[in-house]
Design a protein that fits this description.
Length: 338
């Protein structure tokens, strides 16, 4: 059942089980320093009936275990006899980083690389570039829809949101992305303005941006917690993925409805920085609506005295907060969406 395949650009690494069956493989990307193989697990479930293809990718950041657990739940819950089309799932997209329980591989030649800033990758480049290239060329480019699962950065928490991509239809896939986002069922939908950086983070080599250039439909779901499995989020997310499959005509078993009503759309994310370093005491909750000038929290010196009041620079809602109780100057203590 399990073997190591060489990467390439062929559809789903050439894994093509017969209709009504599934095939689990480990695709070899390279070798670790002890010459043992670095492999990526790939599950291909071929429905008994024809239909579209969905690629679900989790764990491209190796410390986002909630997404990996969600993907495992999905793989184990789908019976190919009841499926129309092809479901492809990679539960651990970035195995080297997963092994070091970190966002990127700690032993990378050029230290930690953020895989979601390296798309479309480089087949003959750094290890992480090779992983990204293999997944982009063999998976994203061949699927009718890709759902990329993420969790908030370690030390932060975020409102659960769907990154729908751009709000225009230049890539021709807006309806498909919107349909998927609505079906998954998260309370916030992010419509990215092309070319806008996230603070110091250049997003032009993210999967979402590069998929737009390549005219592939990709949505990103961000929920749960990093570095541990958020059980509720994993279960809800696995159901959300089945709801996407139902919306695509791939799955028709009864499913629990979404927990949220009409999603809140937003297109801007304002980063709020700490100027002073010290203890961090936030006084806002995720999702809370704030106005420019509102106090969001305070920085404390080593004796607990307030040295800075963190102030909202714009109107909006609290999209993300740092959960670390101590920060240095320049920490992004909050993000405000609007
Ligand atoms: Zn991530």
């Amino acid at each position: 059942m399990t073997s190591a395949l060489a990467p390439g650009s062929q559809r789903f690494f050439g894994i093509a089980p017969a209709p009504g069956s599934k095939q689990f493989e480990r695709v070899e990307i390279g070798q670790f320093a002890d010459a043992s193989p670095i492999t990526i697990p790939v599950a291909v479930i071929e429905g008994a009936n024809p239909g579209p293809s969905l690629y679900v990718q989790a764990g491209i950041h190796g410390d986002e275990f909630t997404g990996t657990d969600m993907a495992w739940r999905l793989i184990q819950s789908v019976d190919p006899a009841q499926l129309s089309g092809t479901l492809v799932v990679v539960p651990i997209g970035n195995t080297p980083s997963y092994l070091t329980r970190a966002r990127g591989f700690l032993l990378e030649e050029r230290y930690l690389q953020d895989a979601n800033r390296l798309y479309p990758g480089k087949a003959g480049g750094l290890l992480t570039e090779r992983i990204v290239a293999a997944l982009f060329n063999s998976m994203v480019m061949h699927a009718d829809l890709t759902v990329d699962i993420h969790c908030p950065l370690d030390g932060s928490s975020m409102v659960p949101f769907m990154h729908v991509g751009t709000s225009d239809d230049d890539d021709g896939w807006l309806d498909r992305r919107k349909l998927a986002a609505e079906a998954f069922g998260l309370p916030y939908h992010y419509y990215r303005i092309p070319g806008v950086a996230l603070g110091s983070s250049d997003m032009t080599r993210s999967l979402a941006h590069q998929a737009g250039i390549a005219k592939r439909a990709v949505v990103m779901a961000e929920l749960g917690t990093s570095r541990q499995i958020d059980r509720q989020a994993a279960i809800y997310g696995a159901e959300g993925l089945l709801r996407i499959m139902a919306a695509m005509g791939m799955w028709n078993a009864p499913l629990p409805a979404s927990q949220y009503g009409e999603p809140t759309p937003f297109s801007n994310i304002a980063l709020v920085y700490a100027n002073a370093g010290g203890g961090l005491r936030m006084n806002v909750e995720l999702g809370q609506v704030v106005c420019a000038g509102d106090s969001l929290g305070v920085i404390l010196d080593a004796f607990g005295a307030e040295t800075e009041v963190i102030v909202a620079p714009v109107d909006g809602f609290i999209m993300r907060v740092i959960t670390f109780g101590a920060v240095a100057t320049g920490a992004e203590v909050a993000w405000i969406g609007n």
